[in-house]
Specification:
Elements (H helix, E strand, L loop, with lengths): L4 E4 L14 E4 L7 E6 L6 H9 L6 E5 L4 E4 L5 E4 L15 H15 L7 E7 L1 H15 L14 E5 L6 H9 L2 H9 L2 E6 L7 H13 L5 E6 L8 H14 L7
Parallel strand pairs: 3-4, 3-7, 7-8, 8-9, 9-10
Antiparallel strand pairs: 1-2, 2-4, 5-6
Helix pairs in contact: 3-5, 4-6
């Protein structure tokens, strides 16, 4: 397979001093119409993300594949690995690491901040990467991070595979009290996919996330379930994402 990626240095640090790893870029083989940041899951890295994105046959998309900081993870008893934020047990009453979420969402926004004005920008990811993608979608709608600082990116697409929505309980109330937030939420296309046999992020959390987004005013959410699929991706699922991105973003496809 031809490989048109380059790697960029790390150096950006989040609020706790954890350093983000190396970023890999897959250049578009055709006209550059869109740029998407793709976010790996727990313990993975941007290199494997870039290889997956390279295989998707989307010649008009530039992919930016960063690597999360290496940090202690509560759910792993303090074991360190690459992670976008700290996570304990994924549950409806779980505590969200807002500092970590904001730091990673800000790092991702910075990666998109220098894209040309005529290029569509979006964010996608798998598992914990999907959680950050959805968190970024809520920051876009609200116009600010959890810290209150302005969110600077005009997101046009969000993809979440086998993930969940951090902060879902309070989202609806925040968006309903702002006309601008409701307008942005209703205009953002989102696709979520989840396997019914996922034993890492249970299916019900994916389904609940999609429902919570819809109830909060995200009117363009598509939720696809995959019967018997565990916590991994399959070609049929990725084909669905390719088709969705091509049609939603108006890409020229492989012409």
């Amino acid at each position: 397979m031809s490989y048109s990626h380059q790697s960029m240095g790390s150096g950006s640090r989040n609020a706790r001093g954890y350093e983000f790893g190396r970023t890999y870029v897959v250049r578009p083989k055709g006209k550059h119409q869109a740029t998407l940041v793709w976010l790996h899951g727990l313990g993975d890295n941007g290199s494997s993300s870039s290889q997956l994105m390279e295989s998707l046959h989307l010649p008009n998309i530039k992919w930016i594949c960063p690597t999360a900081p290496t940090r202690p993870i509560s759910s792993l008893g303090g074991f360190t690995c690459t992670a976008w934020f700290d996570v304990g047990e994924i549950s409806e009453d779980g505590h969200d690491d807002l500092e970590g979420l904001d730091a990673s969402a800000s790092h991702i926004a910075n990666l998109l901040s220098s894209e040309p004005a005529d290029v569509i920008v979006g964010i996608g990811g798998f598992s914990m990467g999907a959680a950050i993608s959805l968190y970024s979608a809520t920051c876009y709608a609200l116009g600010r991070y959890g810290t209150g600082h302005n969110y600077p990116i005009n997101l046009r697409a969000v993809v979440g595979l086998s993930g969940w929505l951090p902060g879902w309980k309070s989202l609806r109330g925040k968006i309903e009290c702002s006309y601008e937030a409701a307008r942005r939420a209703s205009s953002l296309p989102i696709i979520l996919t989840h396997g019914t046999s996922d034993d890492v992020v249970p299916y019900r959390f994916g389904e609940k996330s999609a429902q919570s987004l819809g109830m909060a005013g995200f009117r363009q959410v598509i939720f696809k379930q995959y019967e018997g699929l565990g916590h991994y991706t399959v070609p049929k699922e990725l084909d669905e994402v390719v088709h969705w991105l091509t049609t939603r973003l108006g890409l020229e496809g492989s012409r």
